[in-house]
Request: fold
Amino acid sequence: MVLDRVFPKETIVIGLESTEKDELFEELVEVLHAAHPELVREEAVSALLAREQKMTTGILPSVAVPHAVCPSLQETVGAIGISRSGIDFDSLDKKPVHIVFMLLAAPGQTGKHVQILKTLSAVLEKPDTVERLLQCTSASDVHTVLRSEESAIGK
Reply:
């Protein structure tokens, strides 16, 4: 299992307060910093914003996967945020985003980063996965859904 290690329960936020992309990056980077104190907040937010300028990572209906490389990290880390009201994300479908999977990779971990994105994509492409995640009321529920969906893609 890959996703349950990258997105542990302590980096899953139900009920994001942010309503815009910039606020969201600050909010989830703070969650990641609490779990990984070596993460330099300003570096992470700057890297995420630079990546978004190239092309939006709001690529699936209701879902965004912002990701970037952060030199202050030694491993790839992630956070998940769920917003009931939605976040203005400049997504491809022009609709608000409700689930955000943020990934920050250490330099030189391109292969691992790509593997995580591939696994996440396979999970999110499964019918009803997004809806199941939106119905979660706790970090534990989100973690359980991800584990279940990831284990099912190998079958």
Remarks:
- The two ends are 13 Å apart (CA to CA).
- The chain is about 45% helix and 20% strand.
- Helices lie at 3-6, 21-35, 41-54, 110-125, 129-134, 139-153.
